[in-house]
Structure formats: C-alpha cells, structure tokens
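Hello,

I think I submitted the guanosine-5'-monophosphate job twice by accident. Can you confirm which output corresponds to this input? Input:
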Amino acid sequence: MSTGTEIAPLVLIVSGPSGSGKSTLVQRILELPGTMASISCTTRSRRATEASGKCYDFVTEAEFDAMAARGEFLEYARVFGKHSYGTPRKWLEESRKKGLDVVLEIDVQGAAQVKEKLPESVAIFILPPSREELERRLRERGQDSNEEIARRLAKARDEIAAFGKYYDFCVVNDDVERAGREAQAIVIALRCTSARRRARVEQLLASFGRE
Ligand code: 5GP
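Support: Only one job matched these inputs. Its output is below.
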C-alpha cells in the first residue's frame, strides 16, 4: 500500500517505561493503513496471554546468540539484566519491500542503537502521567513480584532521565484515547513532510507539462 511517498518507509521506534501503556499506543499506530509491526525475538518465556509469533518470537539463549553472531539483529539488548531482546533486520527488509512504515516497540538501549545506525528513524517516547500511576498500573497487571516492580520503577526513572537524548517526540499517556490520537497524528504528520512528498510534487509538476 502506498503512503504517498517514493522514498524509504518510516522506521518508527516506540519506547517508554514498562507500564507506560506503549503496547496499546503501538496498536493505535498499527491501525493506520500503511504500517506494519516488527516482531522482536526474546529469550524470556512466554506469558499465558501471549501467542508465539504474535507478540514475540520466543527463542532459546543459544538461538539468540547464533542470530546475533550472524548479524541478524538491527539491535539487541539485555533488558532488566535478565533476558535478551532483539529486532531482526528482516522486518526492515520486509518494510522496504512492501512499502510499509515499520513500528519497533523496543527499550531505550535498543532505541539508542537504532538511532545511531539509522539516523533517519523517528523515536517516540511514551511517558506515564506520574510515578504513582505507573506503580499502580504495574501492580494492577499482577504479573510481577515486589522486587520486579521496584526494578521496573528504577529502570523507568533512568529511561525518563535519558529520553531527551534520543527521542524526537513524546506522548503523555494519561488518557489512552487522546494519547492514541497523538501517536497517530505524529505518523500522519511525518508522512506529509515536504521531503517525503517531493516525488509527489515532481509528479504533479510533470502533469502540468513544460512551460
Ligand atoms: P516485556 O518482557 O515486558 O514484554 O518487555 C520488556 C522490555 O523489553 C520492554 O521495554 C520492551 O519494549 C523491550 N523490548 C521488546 N522487544 C525488544 C527488542 O527487540 N529490543 C529491545 N532493545 N527491547 C525490546
């Protein structure tokens, strides 16, 4: 599907602390025609609510290391010092082949790596409205121990402190409907930049014929 451009599709990075609601906002972006998701590989085990190949490709440590050694990842990182997560390059190739803007839902370390390798990529940071609300959401998920929640809150603080370095946009997820509209608006506006519309303008000019 054409997004009205002749140049490489957008590489959209979405990150934010766990509990910031970034997965929901990524879904909102994916509702826009002309987008596709990158499916990460992870060595963590599958949660009961997750189907393999949908949220993640679940792989063993050995499989992950072999993929990394073969250079198959655009970026990879160890998250919470426990499990490895990586973005296979094949999703970028697929995005270019299909002409679809690709969305990477990755952590801040991954975002920094992608921005370095692909400076034209666009990073969107999702902020929770407050520390209290973030803690409330993490507890409500009922997925983590107290120790894990403390670890996630500490990581959230570090990610928020570092965000200005890498991120082009910031969405505060206090109201999911409004935040979802903002996330979609960012992508729509990016598609309308003059640089991305240049080919369209040339085409239009050509249709006027020579002066
Ligand atoms: P969870 O285990 O809760 O699904 O994810 C933990 C963290 O890993 C989240 O911040 C998530 O965005 C991040 N993550 C997921 N996939 C990737 C990836 O491919 N690369 C990196 N660097 N982080 C990822």
